[in-house]
Write a structure and sequence with these properties.
With about 1000 residues, this protein is α+β, with helices and mostly antiparallel strands. Helices cover about 20% and strands about 40% of the residues. The strands form eight sheets. It has a 22-stranded antiparallel beta barrel. Strands 3-8-9-6-7 form a five-stranded mixed β-sheet.
Length: about 1000
């Protein structure tokens, strides 16, 4: 504890408690004298990060993780010895005893101040150092604790500077004068610095405006340092105390008026400790990305053998596969393997999941940045109705309070994707109506290994993906980084960016016991950092404009910008005892800080944007569309509202799963139980700023209006118990899940702020019988559930359904097939209102009931592998999904996609037919593949009868890839997506026609630490 509190107890610290009290008193006197009263900044998010960085640094010290420095005394001693040896001992007599301490104190003070100026200026001038120093400058409110708001690496550099300067000055004085009392000290601290810190040091980082007038030409005042923290004047006043260095360097700025704001124009981290530590390192790494190909030599050195690396016995596994390759679950389960993921190198999860039967995807931006995924008719909007996991841990920003997937991991770093439907999905929750998607990341290797993948292509687009790691079966580490970016395929009226840039970094560490022992334990750590900057918008095109140029963007979207930072911390304890028991406990903490600025609507509330974008543009609509295009200037009645959705997502919890197995000759049992304690909070700030269109450029026309400022909370306790009982060829599976969810919506006048509680019991049973060693029949029934959105009216019910399925599944070494019939009977289908679905203002995140809905369908899969002459393996596969849905009652809803519903209306954005087909040839030295995905048209809103021009048309897309392998560790590849350059509407939501991405060709090279084995 003393280590953590040292910054407040140590007299050498600027934030010594006595100095803080002195600063408070002086600050009060200054405010009384000047008549200026400053607001408190201690309770802001910025100040919270100040404290996190302070405690984080002190924790590193307490844990012994702080780099050890040589001491100033050690340096001074060695300096004196070297000078004595090479120069000789000087003879300086006659210096008065009283003058020596004064001379030493002044010299050390000047040397310290000059060295701080030099290092401080370098922190701003050198890009890599600025990435670190930006953490300090990102403070938007200043308190004395902001002094400790420093990245650990920057703190290390300043401490190193202090040791060097003190050692050199002390050594020089001792060499010259041979002893004596060196320096003025107070409580053992340098007297001049201690005195200045006591008087004004803590007011430098405060909102107390204390200017020193003419004295500022010689000494840096607190007001001058506050100017240094303003974005407009951050390259001035680098000095700590003396102004002479800034005068000599041309960077001195006198304090005339307080700055309007503090902070930086664009930060590289979020408002939490992990992001502040990792974000700057990621930015530095990105600046070195062009040197990535040089890492090939390093990877080659890592590769010590060509054998496949054996998998870790304790790696997380969800999908259980039997000896014949059949999933041992009474329900539909599919896996997209690493080989399949690498076949087309898709960065878009929509492309990957389009090949899985039963999964519905809806494109939005062409890059897959904000996925819309549904399973068996569950609403695909923002993937909010399915359970999303990464390595078995919930990955949505706030899975209970706001499950919309505004964050989704980059597919290119996944090693497999698992999809669970039917009774097999009830184990995971909270959403069990449709199913579960689990993304599996790379495990820690058991030997030195690594790879680099560099690609570039149309628009232009670039990718750098690298990973390296090592291990010995008991312990190991893995570091993986991905950078993907594009200038964008759309053309913005008047010019401007339409692309994106994404970065993800993941670290894994493992420390385990002997894997051959009866009882095996391990401790695992997973750290992740992700960021995105994308110039995306919600505004699409009218039908006529889409027909003329589908990849156009209106001038009204020129301010569209999404920025987010996400940090991920997970600590796991896997354990295995023989072959009868295994368990895994994970503590996790995820934080997402996002802000999206985009065109929302016209200020006139009578303008229906959805109708405007689907209309013909006659009358006033033509004028409004001309304003959106930048062809006409707007009047006061045509002002545009540019909105910003600023949100902070915080999700954390602990979950544990355990399996106990007992196997006999005829009877066997596998019992699994799990418990999850979870919490998530969402801080929401949504506001709009009116703008005018002037000569094709948006000009601000007023102040911002806050539409929503609220805090959403969710607390959940969930548990499940699942038994698999095998008797010969028959497998009986049964169990139940319990979800106990409490939610609260704080800060909205028209929504209830009391805690709302929902408890749901979700049973499920299934049976599987092995008809032959290669053919299984299965059936199952389970209860589907989706929680109520926080802040909903008390009468709103959770989404509930009874889901049944029956199917056949066959698998041999070279053949696989599956045919499943399913039925989802909704007692109450719900949908949450989001911007992505076309909702605005107070309706955001409101839940709407759709009543009873019947949904039936079939899923089929067929695949065959052929071994051809000359070592060529040919793989052919096809999938198809049929989905028929109908509302069972008539009603009117404020949810735009429901509207006025008539009994028998079909659900929107659920295609009747969808399918995929692939043809792939693999050889040891080359490969080639062709893939097609197709779907029938989709309804834009609930309706029946033939589709109209206001619905979404059918779509067929074709992709291709090819690769050559001149060596065991080198692969040259090319991929082409949308080969036919098809331009089709994929959605009318939220505001107008959204296009497919056009033809994109990528060319890349992979360098592997270990050779790739081709079966």
């Amino acid at each position: 504890m003393s280590d953590l509190l040292a910054p407040f107890l140590d007299p050498a610290s600027r934030t010594w408690w006595v100095a803080l009290l002195a600063a408070a008193a002086i600050g009060w006197l200054v405010q009384v004298w000047t008549g200026r009263s400053e607001r408190s900044a201690w309770l802001s998010r910025s100040s919270a990060l100040d404290m996190q960085l302070l405690l984080g640094r002190q924790a590193l010290r307490a844990l012994g993780a702080w780099p050890a420095l040589f001491t100033a005394w050690w340096l001074a001693t060695h300096l004196v010895r070297r000078l004595d040896r090479y120069v000789g001992r000087p003879e300086l007599d006659g210096v008065p005893e009283w003058a020596l301490p004064a001379l030493y104190a002044v010299t050390l003070f000047v040397a310290w101040d000059a060295s701080r100026y030099v290092l401080h200026r370098l922190m701003h001038a050198v890009p890599a150092l600025w990435s670190l120093h930006q953490v300090h400058h990102s403070a938007e409110t200043l308190t004395p604790l902001t002094f400790h708001r420093i990245h650990p690496l920057e703190s290390f550099l300043y401490e190193l500077r202090g040791v060097v300067v003190t050692g050199l000055v002390a050594g020089g004085f001792y060499w010259l004068f041979r002893g004596g009392s060196l320096g003025w000290t107070v409580l053992g601290v340098h007297g001049i610095g201690w005195t200045l810190n006591l008087i004004s040091g803590n007011l430098r980082h405060s909102h107390v405006w204390w200017s020193w007038g003419r004295l500022e030409a010689w000494l840096i005042s607190p007001a001058q340092h506050q100017l240094h923290h303003a974005p407009e004047t951050e390259r001035t006043n680098f000095g700590t105390w003396l102004a002479i260095w800034d005068r000599l360097g041309g960077t001195l700025l006198l304090a005339e008026r307080p700055p309007e704001r503090f902070g930086v124009a664009s930060r590289n981290h979020g408002d939490d400790l992990a992001s502040a530590w990792l974000g700057p390192l990621v930015e530095i790494g990105r600046s070195w990305a062009p040197l990535a190909p040089l890492g090939a030599a390093f990877l080659s050195a890592l590769a010590q053998a060509d054998d496949e690396v054996p998998s870790d016995d304790l790696d997380y596994e969800i999908l259980v596969v039997g000896d014949e390759g059949l999933p041992e679950v009474a329900g539909s389960a599919h896996e997209v393997t690493e080989e399949q993921l690498e076949r087309f190198e898709h960065d878009d999860i929509h492309k990957v999941l389009a090949t899985v039967p039963g999964v519905t995807v809806r494109e939005e931006d062409g890059f897959g940045l904000r996925p819309n995924i549904g399973i068996r008719g569950a609403n695909s909007n923002r993937s909010a109705k399915i359970t999303l996991m990464e390595d078995g841990v919930l990955l949505a920003p706030a899975p209970y309070a706001a499950p919309a997937a505004y964050y989704f991991p980059m597919t290119t770093r996944m090693t497999s994707v698992e999809v669970f439907k039917g009774a097999s999905a009830v184990q995971y929750g909270p959403n069990t109506v449709g199913g579960t998607v689990n993304l599996v990341t790379r495990g820690v290797p058991d030997a030195p290994d690594g790879a680099i993948d560099v690609a570039a292509g149309y628009w232009p687009t670039g990718k750098v993906h690298a990973w390296t790691g090592t291990g010995d079966g008991r312990s190991g580490v893995l570091l993986e980084a991905v950078e993907v970016g594009s200038t964008g395929f759309k053309t913005l009226d008047g010019g401007g960016p339409t692309g994106f840039d994404r970065t993800e970094v993941m670290f894994k560490g493992r420390l385990g016991s002997d894997p051959d022992a009866e009882s095996v334990h391990a401790l695992e750590l997973k750290l992740g950092y992700s960021r995105e900057r994308s110039h995306e918008t919600y505004l699409g095109l009218t039908p006529d404009d889409f027909e003329a140029q589908p990849w156009r963007r209106y001038a009204a979207t020129q301010l569209g910008l999404m920025e987010w930072h996400r940090t991920q911390v997970e600590a796991s304890w896997p354990v295995r005892i023989g072959e009868v028991f295994d368990a895994r406990t994970v503590a996790y903490h995820h934080f997402l800080d996002r802000s999206w600025t985009k065109f929302n609507r016209f200020e006139d509330p009578s303008v229906d944007m959805h109708a405007l974008m689907q209309g013909t543009g006659e009358g006033r609509a033509g004028v409004l569309l001309a304003v959106l295009r930048g062809e006409e200037d707007s009047t006061e009645a045509e002002r545009l509202l540019i909105g910003t959705n600023d949100r902070r997502f915080h999700a954390y919890g602990v979950q544990s799963r355990a399996r106990w197995s007992a196997r006999g000759d005829v009877i066997s049992s596998r019992l699994e139980g799990g418990l999850r304690v979870h919490a998530d909070d969402v801080l929401r700030l949504q506001y709009e700023v009116p703008h005018h269109m002037r000569s094709g450029v948006l000009r601000r026309a007023g102040g911002r209006v806050v539409n929503l400022d609220a805090l959403t909370r969710a607390r959940a306790l969930a548990g499940h118990l699942h038994e698999t009982f095998d008797v010969g060829p028959l497998s009986l599976q049964g169990g139940a899940r319990v979800e106990h969810v409490r939610t609260r919506f704080e800060g909205a006048d028209e929504r209830p702020e009391d805690w709302q509680t929902t408890t749901a019991l979700l049973p499920g049973v299934g049976a599987l019988v092995s008809l032959t060693p290669w053919l299984d029949a299965f059936t199952g029934i389970h209860r589907g559930f989706s929680p109520v959105a926080p802040g909903s009216d008390p009468g709103v019910l959770p989404e509930q359904s009874w889901n049944t399925e029956v199917g056949l599944r066959a698998s041999t070494i070279d053949f696989r097939a599956e045919l499943v019939g399913f039925s989802n009977a909704y007692a109450n289908l719900t949908s949450a209102c989001t911007f992505a679905s076309g909702c605005l203002d107070e309706a955001i995140d409101t839940q709407y009931d759709g009543g009873e809905v019947e949904m039936v369908g079939t899923e089929s899969l067929l695949g065959k592998s052929f071994l051809l002459p000359a070592g060529v393996a040919l793989d052919v596969s096809a999938t198809h999904t049929l989905t028929v849905s109908a509302f069972q009652s008539s009603f009117s809803s404020n949810f735009d996609q429901f509207g006025d519903v008539e009994k028998g209306d079909w659900l929107p954005y659920v295609p009747v037919h969808q399918g995929a087909a692939q043809l792939a040839a693999e050889h040891r030295r080359w490969s080639a593949a062709l893939a097609a995905t197709a779907r029938s048209g989709m309804r834009d809103s609930a309706s029946q009868g033939p589709l109209t021009t206001e619905d979404v048309p059918a779509l067929v897309l074709l992709d291709a890839s090819a690769a050559i392998r001149p060596g065991e560790r080198v692969e040259l590849y090319t991929t082409a997506s949308n080969v036919l350059n098809t331009a089709a509407v994929v959605s009318w939501r939220p505001l107008g026609a959204r296009p497919t991405a056009p033809l994109r060709v990528m060319v890349g090279v992979k360098l592997r630490g270990r050779s790739r084995e081709i079966d």
